[in-house]
């Protein structure tokens, strides 16, 4: 059995005992990347030499008996929207071409403190806007389970990276489902923490009130291991919560007794693929067999989730992306070649317009326009303010639900991985990919996607658990219970 | 709106209506949302970090000290402080605004509904209260420097200033003349200086003032309002007054021609051209004024408690208005002297109070502060904190005047040496050989002078009392310590007795 098929938790133990060196481990992943990356295209930037150098250093320090961090010597892939000092950070957008951050995102700094090996930067939908990673301006990433299919998005690069065995751990970000949906489609574990659980400092913002960074891993223990490093209050992010971080690693294998799971009937309406429906129902039966009680609950406002999300997220995005104007960094259009047909605009406006026109892709432009419109005078109350009100109602639905149940259980996506190009011409179909995931972001609750089956076509299916804010400990333990009773997490694509 | 007072000019009566928006840079060590220093005049782009540069991924964290200074100011301006306030983004594109939005406060400002009282030293207008609509906290933008010489558009951006805390204080349109507006701004500046919350340097831009001006004109068909114009770029009190005065004249002349009234056109922004002493229409920043305000999702709302408000109230200390009253009522100073002292700032006023207490004579203390002390400070370009003599040391000197050991003119000589050498009054007097001449000695000297100068005596007797000056001169030559006033008095008395 190859070393890369082991969990990071196991590798960590082998590194600790000296059974394995970080150079060996890192080399094994780099070799897998070398042989398979051309088919998958998960990375937009690979730090091969730096990774090996760092691994060598860890081995030397370990040999010298120095104290090492919690992820010492283990490769981690990082989504390309997390700033890393001195490393290009593009958000898969042309507008950030050439941008090299002079600082580390808090999570990147934490990985460094934990002595993790930063192996490379993963592909994504431009500015995390999308559900297929097809909105990347750099490349299209394939799903390792079927190279004709998309890996999901926006953290599709990180999901494919884990599924393909390019790294044991990866970071993703989730604004409306961008960790959980690709995790489901690639048959891996993806955890979106509660809003405020992980610092957003250094995460290039898409929608600030919804964005969260989280672990994408091959199994639940590894998600606990990575979240343990990431979680906690950060003085650089005033929206990060000063709430105690539980001992995820220590607790994850402890089963929960008297677990009550809530099933939202609204989730089983039209559009849910039959195979997914039956896999999720089977997962619920597994929990029942483990002693869990199932309760049917109502989320009366959940059906407004997509509409609410597609007001709030674009509004925030339209403002967050204003800074990409060509004036300070990134892509600036050459004024001599840019369109000068408009005579009324001055040189500055022309520079802004042509830089943004060339730098942003269609989906990003679509959302900037949506948000700009919804925030405009005369529309603000009808759209943005109304959306905020619905958001509060959705949060209330969750608060009420968690009075009766410990966790919610349901599908992650309505369908499995689709073919590249299948939904690119239909933005609304693409938006519906977030149907079961957006409400967790709107309410700020935590959610995890874990593998629970394969379709007849051999594509992975995920089941989603959601917990009240800051109950990641409970979420991970419940997820582990399922994993322990099944072997879906051990399935890996052959490609 | 209050009924317009009329003010005839050019045959048609109209009232001037002015409201001021004042931006104050708060004196914090670090910026509003990051920990970069706020020091003025550093090399461009050296006081920046990922946050104030607006780099992707950076996040703001509020500087609590800036909020406290804002609260202190708002309370001193009699504003109410809501328990809940939040941050909003004001979205617009400009190169000196690296995030593409300014973090400000829109519908829930940190303070509102205050007032301050203005008065005129030379009775240009009656004492009145100017209402303050609101004061809110926001971040400053950077600076753009444009060099469009020779057709080569070359713009440079300095982001050192970006993120400096600004308190925007918005008055109601309660001022009815340029003089009132100037008085409001001066009183506001004085309050800010007394609070120690800002340097209030208009040249350096730590105090900036925009004026909204229009006219209410009486016509046979009733009172009409002219379109409101916002005047910017006024970098001195004088500029504020001149700018408004110019704008009043311009608007009236224009109205006579075009009869445009409020609502006929959007609010116009005009810049004050100091060289030409005129306002000029400014190129509009982004054609629309739709800033698409919305709550900043990166910052948590600020919650304020009664305890915090009370604690801040305790820190306000002396304000100009109460000090003025104290100087007039308790110290019996003239309006002019008290104004001079108060306008010099809290340190100067404190010095005066210490001096007046030390010598138990407010009038003498006030005259010296207003005269000699202020003269030296101006000459040496010093603040009272840098002044060489303590109130106690200066008090020693003034006590010699009170005791008659020194006349005012000699005291000034001693004062000059004290400033120069740092010696005590007594030491300087000893060094200069100044000592009190006893009265019998003085009497004897005067008698001798009268006896020895019959010609001068005759001159005085023939109706020219000024001739006695020659005797004073001789007396001072014999003994430099004599008090010329006393010599004059004694000699005239002796001559009269002849």
Structural account:
The complex is a heterodimer of chains A (495) and B (498). Chain A contains 16 helices and 11 strands. By secondary structure, chain A is an alpha/beta fold. An 11-stranded mixed beta sheet of chain A has the order 1-3-2-4-6-5-10-11-9-7-8, with helices on both faces. Chain A is globular, with a radius of gyration of 22 Å. The mean pLDDT of chain A is 96. Chain B is α+β, with helices and mostly antiparallel strands and 498 residues long. In chain B, the strands form 4 sheets. In chain B, strands 1, 2, 6, 7, 10, 11, 12, 13, 14 and 15 form a 10-stranded mixed beta sheet that branches. A 3-stranded antiparallel beta sheet of chain B has the order 5-4-16, with no helix packed on it. In chain B, helix 5 runs antiparallel to helix 6. Chain B starts with 6 loop residues before the first strand and ends with a helix. Classes of the chains: A alpha/beta (495), B alpha+beta (498). Chains A and B meet through helix 10 and helix 11 of A and loops of B.
